[in-house]
Amino acid sequence: MNMQSNAKPGAARERGAIWTQICDEARRAVQAEPLLGALIHAGLLHHPSLEAALAYRFSMKLASDEMSEQLLREIADAAYADDISLGDAARADLLAVYDRDPATHRLIQPILFFKGFQALEAYRIAHWLWRQGRRDMAYFV
């Protein structure tokens, strides 16, 4: 594998550069492990932004008979649209995991596989709900 493909994002940590790197990693992962293609396409490549991918992951992880995936997705989309700092915080969280966790070799790993990262992003959405006065929904999340 090309050493550059695993290069840390370095100075180019802006929104677009991070999402571009995530999509590049996702495409390479599908080539390397075709059996994960559906997961990677649904979780990353079908989305226009990190926020959209995180909203999808949030809704998939928390959906149940009591709360539909669609409703959870609408909540997450509203949170990311209303407060741009949520997406920026998610990027900072993602880069922190990438930089500090020796088990993390690609930015796609925390998004797709790491429960702690996913829980942190769910907490951020719950906190947004709390600040909106939607306390019961925040408790649900």
How would you describe what is shown here?
By secondary structure, the protein is mainly alpha-helical. It has a single domain (12-140), classed as serine acetyltransferase, domain 1, CATH 1.10.3130.10. It has eight helices and no strands. It has helices at 15-32, 37-45, 50-62, 69-82, 84-100, 108-113, 115-131, 135-140. Helix 1 (15-32) runs antiparallel to helix 2 (37-45), helix 2 (37-45) crosses helix 3 (50-62) and helix 4 (69-82) packs across helix 5. The protein starts with 14 loop residues before the first helix and ends with a helix. 28% of the residues are buried. Mean pLDDT is 92; it is low at 1-12.
CATH class: Mainly Alpha
Largest sheet: none
What CATH calls the topology is: serine acetyltransferase, domain 1
Q: How many domains?
A: 1
What general outline do the C-alpha atoms trace? Answer: globular
First-residue to last-residue Cα separation: 40 Å
What helical percentage do the residues reach? over 70%
Cα gyration radius (Å): 15 Å
Number of extended strands: 0
Query: CATH homologous superfamily, by name?
Result: serine acetyltransferase, domain 1
Residue stretches low in confidence (pLDDT < 50, at least 5 long) are 1-12
Structural class computed from helices and strand pairing = mainly alpha
In the CATH hierarchy, what is the architecture at level 2? Answer: Orthogonal Bundle
Mean model confidence by pLDDT? 92
Percent of residues in β-strands: under 5%
Enumerate how many helices there are, as a single number: 8
* Order of secondary-structure elements: HHHHHHHH
